[in-house]
Amino acid sequence: MIFTILYFSQALILYLPHCLIHKYPTCTNVSDTLSTIYLSVTNLASGYSQLDWNSVLTGTNNGWYTLYREYPAGNIIAVITVPNGFTFSDTVNVCKNDTAKYIVTLADSSGCLHSSSVAILTNDILQPGLTTVDSVSVDPSLGNAMISWTNGNSIDVSGYIIYLSNPSGGWDSITTVYGINNTYYLNSGSTAGSGSESYSIAAIDACGNTSPISQGHSTMFVMASSDRCSATISVTWNGYNGWNGFTPTYSVYCTVNGNDSLLNVTSGTSFVHSGLTQNQVYCYYIRASDGYGRTSTSNRYCIAADIIQLPSFTYLNNITVQTDGSVFISCYTDSSADVDYYKVQRSEDSIFFETIKTIDDQAVNSRITFTDKTASATDAIIYYRVVVVDSCGTESFISNVAKTIYLRAEVKSDIRNLLVWNQYRSWISPVSLYNVYRKVNDAWELSPVNTKIPQYDPDSINDDVYPFIDRRGNFCYYVQAVQSPVTNPYSSGPAQFSETSLSNIVCVDQFQKLLIPNTFTPNGDGVNDFFMPDRAFIDAGDYLLIIYNRYGQEIFSTSNPDEAWDGSFRTRQIQSGAYVYYIRFKLTNGDIIEKSGTVTLLR
């Protein structure tokens, strides 16, 4: 048995094997029942070509089949030789108008060579299998989008086309990544650090066939805003889009001074960060997870905390009553605080306060001073405080409460004036002493009439005014509280201070008394030798004293309240007897006092 192989125009033509019995008498055996070999090829659309053929010998399949391929034209190779095989998958890609030709042969045990029909594989027009995006993320340092995907099920994939969504809702091809196992791309031209971007992908084979475009995936874009009034930063982001059927969870991370910390895990798309430090830079990023190993990371957004600066102090350093009964108020303020205005408030019971003055912060330079001219500090204790209203409109700080010193005076019958006052309480250091100052008639004494040390002495004195019995009898007082020296703990004011606070001025008139003797003995013994009225706290004006004898004759007169009658008339001593007196004087308030009667002169 012989076979012949012929080549025509670079095409492989193999004639079926035949037995030449008549021409070659040595071939004496009649062949077995034979079948022609029919070879078929099918494109499996996955980078494979499926080749199938039938057995030559009916009822048996012993022998070796050899598969030949001609591709490109003129290039004939034995692809594979298999025993007793009837199928094979080839991986050749035929593109455009080109073809690949196959033939299979079998050398049987009788020495005959059988060949199949020619199977022709036409150009590949089938799409690769669908490739899906695994996730899209954002490079934290550059803000570029990073895309990763699976390599699909087609072995003839030669690359992947990356698509970026455009504003009109379509897809623009931005690049092609070659290599079936290259499943990652960093878009250096991305602006995912400024906003969300959507990406999809399509596989491409060696013939340029592309798969359908995959479902789009969108990067997360995180941003944050600082709320100075609530001292928080609100972090928001768009939800991850692409994991259909999976609800992502979002981990909120914050980077401070290079250190990352997990703040929260949520299914929402916002988070409020509190407990911030003024001007500290906080950098946020979000990591989404589908719960099955897929993750996506957002851009990194950095923001400095802009927090309202609340006062660290507001200190009423002085509340003092002025001579007209108004109250002077002095208050140290924190100039570094974000303040809109201050409210000066007043109370009569230290519980219910009313605002009597608002002072704009622009008018304040570390200290508030104000005079309350509507105060009634001469009638009762008055309480004051200062409320700070910050730039968010919130009453963010209330100062210490200070109260005036309310001084009361009471005239006593033993020619004393009882003075009582309340302690001054508001300073950061205690009162070291109280000085009591006195005015007699119209002149204030330069030195305190009394000094009290609070921890040892009561807040009262009994002022003996007998030494002033010959005066008009009007006494005025005020109390001065003196603070123990203290180092200034605030940012304004002197390094050390000792404040003083004055009480109201209270005035009293001692009981006025006029004593007229009814007898005197001008005998020169130094006892009761003169006649004149004794005054207590009467400062008489327009004074007149006249003495008459029993005949109505004027025998003595004087306008000097300190001049007495010595019992003489025209330098001669007169005899014992009863004499008439007339006294007239005008008080400082303008009242006229007149007294008359008799006095007995005894020798």
How much strand?
over 45%
Spatial extent as radius of gyration: 60 Å
- Taken from the alpha-carbon principal axes, the silhouette is rod-shaped
Number of helices: 0
How much helix, percentage-wise, in residues?
Answer: under 10%
Secondary-structure-derived class: mainly beta
End-to-end distance: 199 Å
What do the pLDDT scores average to?
A: 87
Contiguous uncertain segments of 5+ residues: 1-28
Beta strands, count: 53
What summary fits the major beta sheet?
6 strands, antiparallel
Question: In a nutshell, what does this entry contain?
Answer:
By secondary structure, the chain is mostly beta strands. The protein is built from no helices and 53 strands.
Describe this structure in words.
The protein is built from no helices and 53 strands. Strand 5 and strand 6 form a beta hairpin. The protein is mainly beta and 603 residues long. The strands form 15 sheets. Strands 36, 37, 38, 40, 43 and 44 form a six-stranded antiparallel sheet that branches. Strands 5, 6, 8, 9 and 10 form a five-stranded antiparallel sheet that branches. Strands 20, 21, 23, 24 and 25 form a five-stranded antiparallel sheet that branches. 0% of the residues lie in helices and 48% in strands.
